[in-house]
Amino acid sequence: METHVHLPDSEPPATIREVVAALKKQKLPAKHDKQSWGDWINLEGKDTVISIESMNGLTTRATIEEASGEDEVLIKCINAFRALGWYGEDEDGPYPL
């Protein structure tokens, strides 16, 4: 399952470092993994990953790719993004996390 999250257009971009810190605050072992094909936040020992859009270390959008059976991890990820002021987005548009 995928959960799309983003900052409102009226907000300045966040740094990936801020996102990783918010995830760690939720007791998730988050680590930024920059690859030539994109930026990822891996959660050590978990199969859930976060694909994060980045431009020069700044971000406004991400996709949480939840692994089966890791509902608690998804909840912690959503709590981290909520604490940063991010919103979810689905086919009906944005919604508060």
Keywords:
97 residues; alpha+beta; TATA-Binding Protein; 7-stranded antiparallel sheet; 9 strands; globular
Give an overview in words.
It is a single chain. The chain is α+β, with helices and mostly antiparallel strands and about 100 residues long. The protein has a single domain, classed as TATA-Binding Protein (2-Layer Sandwich). About 25% of the residues lie in helices and about 40% in strands. It has helices at about 15-25, 70-85, and strands spanning about 1-5, 15, 30-35, 40-45, 50, 60, 60-65, 85-90, 95. Strand 4 and strand 5 (about 50) form a beta hairpin. Helix 1 packs across helix 2. This is DUF4242 domain-containing protein.
* Nearest-integer average pLDDT: 96
Helix count, DSSP H or I runs of 4 or more residues? 2
Q: Give the tally of β-strands.
A: 9
Weakly predicted, low-confidence segments: none
CATH fold descriptor = TATA-Binding Protein
β-strand percent reads 35-45%
Radius of gyration: 12 Å
N→C terminal distance? 16 Å
Shape: globular
Q: Give me the side-by-side strand order of the main sheet.
A: 3-4-5-7-1-8-9
Q: What's the number of domains?
A: 1
Helix content: 10-25%
Which structural class matches the secondary elements? Answer: alpha+beta
At the first level of CATH, what is the class?
A: Alpha Beta
CATH architecture descriptor: 2-Layer Sandwich
| Major sheet characteristics | 7 strands, antiparallel
Order of helices and strands: EEHEEEEEHEE
Protein name: DUF4242 domain-containing protein
Organism: Rubritalea halochordaticola
